[in-house]
Amino acid sequence: MHTGSIRQGGGALEDIVSLIPVGEPRRKITVASLREKKLQHQPITCLTAYDYASARLVDEAFIDIVLVGDSLAMTMLGYPDTLSVTVDEMLHHTKAVRRGVKHALLVADMPYGSYHLGADDAVRNAARFMKEAGAEVVKIEGGEKRADLIRRVIDAEIPVAGHIGLTPQSVNVMGGYKVQGKSLEEIERLMRDAVALDRAGVAFLVLEGIPREVAAMITAEVATPTIGIGAGPDCDGQVLVFHDILNLTFVPPAKFVRRYGDASALVKDAVQAYREDVISHQYPADSESYHLSKETQQALETVLERKRGMRR
Ligand code: KIV
After folding, report:
1. Cis before residue 284, ω within 30 degrees of 0?
2. 36 tagged catalytic
3. What is the pTM of this model?
4. How far apart are CA 29 and CA 184, in angstroms?
5. Which residues approach ligand 1 with their CB closer than 6 A?
6. pLDDT tens across 202-256, in order?
7. Which of 141, 185, 186, 208 is catalytic?
8. What does the alpha-carbon distance between residue 169 and residue 290 come to, in Å, rounded to a whole number?
């Protein structure tokens, strides 16, 4: 363990404790290190982040992949689904996350409509995520039917993550957010999707909302790392939504969500306590106020006294 100290912006000297053994600097996660982790059977961790503060917290917690998911349409922007979020909105959030991430692999979701018009459009939009926002990988939803398009984006030197199973951008085609791959026919289609994307060279493959057994088969079949969400424990890694694990979503959680904290209660309590302190004149205290120097205060008194004398 290494203990050091750092001077923070506010001026206080604070102790920080790092979990990295001395002499072993933390390594930057790359597409290659994800493959390495799969080969070594080391679980890959992925969490979404949508702004600077959450990105810093996630990165500093040693998460491997930070995903600027288009789920920010709901979690950050209050849209009902992911369909309305635009490239410009996604870029805005990805830029903020970029400033907070040092070691994790930064992945940005290509939103609905940004790759559906064809490969030229997909490459143009994907390049914006790399050039303007500093993303290292872009994620595109869809299986076999997207393999050629994904190849074109990769040919433009842009790593792509695949995403199959329950793909939220297809909500209207699927007729709701339903677990996919439950029949033999669907399993066969998912296997074809996974193999096609693996051959296209995806950096990793998100498996969302599919039975554990199917995710395990895909994970064993493909060379690319699989990252599951609602796909059971046999994937090479797991991804969850930041707001889900912290109870910040205002809707009942899906079956696969595990809550690791209650930020909602924490924030509500803090905001209520602040309000009560203001109303009851408990905040701010004298110690939280700035003061004039004694000399200036005396000089001010003299000026005010003179003014009062002139008015009399
Ligand atoms: O948008 C998102 O958050 C995702 C996930 C895989 C969680 O795509």
Report:
1. yes
2. no
3. 0.90
4. 37
5. 48, 69-71, 109, 206, 208, 229, 239, 241
6. 999 999 999 999 999 999 999 999 999 999 999 999 999 999 999 999 999 999 9
7. 208
8. 52
Nearest CA to ligand 1 atom 3: 69
Nearest-CA neighbor of 220 among 44, 38, 42, 35? 38
Q: Any idea what DSSP says for residue 252?
A: P
Distance CA 39, CA 157 (A): 24
Pick the atom of ligand 1 nearest to 139's CA: 8
| Mutational pocket test of ligand 1: of 66, 114, 166, 229, the residue with most ligand atoms within 8 Å of the beta carbon | 229
Dihedral pair phi/psi, residue 188, rounded to 5°: -60, -40
Residue nearest to atom 1 of ligand 1 (CA): 69
Least confident of 19-33, 78-92, 102-116: 19-33
b or e along 258-271 (b: 16 or more beta carbons within 10 Å of the residue's beta carbon)?
eeeeeeeeeeeeee
Residue 195 token pair? 């193999």
**Ligand 1 center–CA 199 separation, angstroms:** 23
Residue type present at position 274? Y
